[in-house]
TrEMBL record:
Source organism per UniProt: Inquilinus limosus
Cellular localization per UniProt: Periplasm
A GO-annotated cellular component: periplasmic space
Origin superkingdom: Bacteria
UniProt signal peptide: 1-28
CDD domains, per database record: PBP2_SsuA_like_2
Record keywords, A-Z: Signal, Transport
Name this protein carries in UniProt: Putative aliphatic sulfonates-binding protein
Length: 315
C-alpha cells in the first residue's frame, strides 16, 4: 500500500528533516525544536556561550543563506522557529503565513549598508543615479535602497534596482555587473576586509534593524515551554557574545569558515541585544512596515501588533 506524502513532509525530506515518528506505547517522545538559522549566526551564539548545555529538549539546526528560503520552510511547517529581519517576516505574514513573532533582538543600524567596490567612482548617494543597485527582495536590502533614495530626494525610477539573494549579489558586485549592493553583516565586514569595499550609506535613521524570532502557530501550541526556554538561552547567549567578542569570533570562524577577523569586526559592529516587543518597539516597527507599503514592497498595510504572540515573557 502506498501513502501520499504531504507538501510539508516533502519539504521536510528536502531539507533533511525527519518525518514525525510514530509514537510508541509506553515511551515519551523527546521534544525537538526544528530551528532555522542564517549562516550559523544563532547556533554559534547558543553553543559558544554554553547555552546549549543541559537542554530539556533537542535542537535540530537548519542553515539558510537568507530569510526568504527560511521563511518558506517555516511557513510550510518544516521548521518550528527561525530568525529573520523584521520586514521579511511582515511580507510573509501579510501573505497569510501562519507565523507569529515571539521575540526580537536589535543590532546597530550601521550593520545594514550600501556597498560599492574599492575602485567605484560612486562617492555618495547622489552618485547612485543611473546605477544598478542590488538588494534582497522584500527584505532589508530592498527597503534600505528605497529608504536611502527617499531620504536623498531621488526618485526610484532614477536607479535600476536589481533584486538578488546575497550570494548572487556578491558575485555580481565583484564582476561589475552591479554598481552597489545593499546588505547586512557579516557580508558587510566580509566585503570591506576582503575586497576593500566602501560604504556609501547605512541604516542609521532609516531602519529599526530588528531581527524577529518567529514561530509557526502549531509549534507555539505544541512546544510553548521549549520555545520560551529557547528564547531565554538565545538572549543569554547574545549577552555573553557582547562581553566576549574575540572568543566568539574564534568559535564562529571555525563553524562558518568565515575569516576570524571578519567575524570579530562584524560582532563588534553589531552589538546585538534582545529587546522587548513592547508598545514602543511595535510603534517603531509599524512605521517601517507602513513605509514598505509606500515603497510598493507590500500591497496592504500590516498591523504589526497582530503579528506578535504576547504569551511569551520578555527576555
Amino acid at each position: 500500500m502506498h501513502s501520499t506524502l504531504s507538501r510539508r513532509d516533502l519539504l521536510r525530506l528536502a531539507l533533511g528533516l525527519p518525518l514525525l515518528a510514530l509514537a510508541r506505547p509506553g515511551h515519551a517522545e523527546e521534544t525537538v525544536l526544528q530551528v532555522g538559522d542564517q549562516l550559523f549566526g544563532n547556533r554559534s551564539v547558543v553553543e559558544v556561550s554554553g547555552q546549549a548545555d543541559n537542554l530539556p529538549y533537542r535542537i535540530d539546526w537548519k542553515q539558510f543563506p537568507a530569510a526568504q528560503p527560511l521563511l518558506e520552510a517555516l511557513n510550510a511547517g518544516a521548521l518550528d522557529v527561525g530568525m529573520m529581519g523584521d520586514l521579511s517576516f511582515f511580507t510573509v505574514f501579510a501573505a497569510g503565513a501562519p507565523l507569529r513573532a515571539i521575540g526580537a533582538y536589535r543590532a546597530d543600524p550601521r550593520t545594514q549598508a550600501i556597498l560599492v567596490r574599492s575602485d567605484s567612482p560612486i562617492q555618495g548617494v547622489p552618485d547612485l543615479k543611473g546605477k544598478r543597485v542590488a538588494g534582497t527582495r522584500a527584505g532589508w536590502g530592498q527597503f534600505l535602497i528605497l529608504a536611502t533614495l527617499k531620504q536623498a530626494g531621488i526618485d526610484p525610477s532614477e536607479v535600476e534596482i536589481v533584486l538578488l539573494p546575497p550570494p548572487e549579489a556578491r558575485s555580481a558586485l565583484a564582476a561589475g555587473a552591479i554598481d552597489a549592493w545593499a546588505v547586512w553583516e557579516p557580508y558587510v565586514s566580509t566585503e570591506i576586509l576582503e575586497r576593500g569595499a566602501r560604504v556609501v550609506a547605512d541604516g542609521r535613521g532609516l531602519s529599526p534593524t530588528i531581527t524577529l524570532v518567529a514561530a509557526h502557530v502549531d509549534a507555539i501550541a505544541a512546544k510553548h515551554a521549549a520555545l520560551q526556554d529557547f528564547l531565554g538561552r538565545l538572549s543569554a547567549g547574545r549577552a555573553w557574545v557582547r562581553a566576549h567578542p574575540a572568543e566568539y569570533a574564534r568559535y564562529y570562524a571555525g563553524l562558518s569558515k568565515i575569516p576570524e577577523a571578519v567575524v570579530q569586526r562584524s560582532t563588534e559592529q553589531q552589538q546585538v541585544g534582545f529587546v522587548a516587543l513592547d508598545d514602543a518597539v511595535v510603534a517603531e516597527l509599524q512605521r517601517a512596515a507602513d513605509l514598505t507599503v509606500e515603497f510598493g514592497i507590500l500591497r496592504d498595510r500590516v498591523d504589526v501588533a497582530s503579528t506578535i504572540d504576547r504569551s511569551f515573557s520578555a527576555v
